[in-house]
Amino acid sequence: MNVSPLIQSFVLHFGEMGSRWGINRTVGQIYALLFVSERPLNADDLVDLLGLSRGGVSMGLKELQSWNLVQLRHLPTDRRDHFTTPDDVWAIMRTLVEERKKREIDPTLTTLRDLLLATPQTAADTHAQARMGAMHEQIELLTAWYDDIQKLETERLVQLLSLGSKIAKALEFKDKLFVLPGGRKEAVA
Amino acid sequence: MNVSPLIQSFVLHFGEMGSRWGINRTVGQIYALLFVSERPLNADDLVDLLGLSRGGVSMGLKELQSWNLVQLRHLPTDRRDHFTTPDDVWAIMRTLVEERKKREIDPTLTTLRDLLLATPQTAADTHAQARMGAMHEQIELLTAWYDDIQKLETERLVQLLSLGSKIAKALEFKDKLFVLPGGRKEAVA
DNA sequence: CGACTATTTCAATCATTATTGAAATCCTCG
DNA sequence: CGAGGATTTCAATAATGATTGAAATAGTCG
């Protein structure tokens, strides 16, 4: 691998993590190198710098493109394809979450919806369907939240994240305020 | 597989998804079946119902235990180990997030911290380190938010999620209010 | 339109991971 | 403590996934 020790450590780490992330080592390494590079790299650069095969780099880049994680660039006087990652780490993060949701959550949501429509044949089925319903409801709530949050501009998103549970403190306070004499709570939200 | 068609579909789906989630098919199937079962199941039940090998079930259960995703139960008059998943889907979700963070985020955070301490040897290193710094900062912000949120009781968490971006709307409003004549914003949060 | 280069494809190989099932170990109850 | 059943281990095998590199294709420039 023809990169400095610092960069090599980073690249190797991403290669390792790749397997835990459902992408493979090659793809992880390519992405890591593109992420830290000052200039766009072409496939030959990646072959040289990472010591991978020509075909492997081609497939890795194709996969990264399918994830929308790399951008294709054309440099003047060079007709080869060059690749970069976006500069903005928040943009990257949004893409990552979006794609993982698409691959890891949406299919399950679809399956759950289908199964919830089926007529249970046994007591076991009825119980199973109730469990699936609980799971479905939860995922719906989470994805609705995500859809909502995802629309925010980065500045505001960061603001919201920085706030953290302070907001929940406020909710708590509000609840305490609105506890009625009987002990029940008024619905206010 | 000796389960009703409804449950079989659910189990098979989780088996399929297992690979996308970094767990294997067997583990996914075992978990799915435990999740929808009315009663705790023992290893033999799982062998019968899912048609897996004795060893595979043993390893699958061990893995699920290492994820804290199943609970061991002992039934009276039966000395075999029985397994269940928690009833509360939010508790499950917390465990899942916690474990994935531990496996998929924390190691990267550690690596980044180490690499940020290194002295850059080249201009490329300096640039790479800046990129790593941006990544590090972002992950820190996200995990700090998570640590904060994670402490909330479920009721309040759900409340917060339901609110979604309404809070951001409020932030926006606040910002508009506090824009000073010069156009700069007062720091208020 | 060629000649040349860049890129992709794909069959073959290699590596890793999953799975089996029999043997070994561990437990527990009488 | 030991017999019987429950559980785990592990070597062997199967299945899947990653990687290579040479051949095919696509694309571009003069």
Question: What this model shows, in words?
Answer:
The structure is a homodimer of 189-residue chains. Chain A is mostly helical and 189 residues long. Chain A is 67% helix and 5% strand. Chain A is built from eight helices and three strands. Chain A has a three-stranded antiparallel β-sheet with strand order 1-3-2. In chain A, strand 2 and strand 3 form a beta hairpin. In chain A, helix 1 crosses helix 2, helix 2 packs across helix 4 and helix 3 crosses helix 4. The N and C termini of chain A lie far apart (57 Å). The mean pLDDT of chain A is 92. The structure holds a DNA duplex (30 and 30 nucleotides).
Percent strand of chain A equals 5-15%
Give the CA-based shape of chain A. Answer: extended
With helices defined by DSSP (H or I, 4 residues minimum), what is the helix count of chain A?
8
**Global mean pLDDT of chain A:** 92
Low-pLDDT segments, ≥5 res of chain A: none
- Biggest interface, residues from each chain: A-B, 63 and 63 residues
Order of helices and strands of chain A: HHEHHEEHHHH
The main β sheet of chain A shows up as: 3 strands, antiparallel
* Secondary-structure content class of chain A: mainly alpha
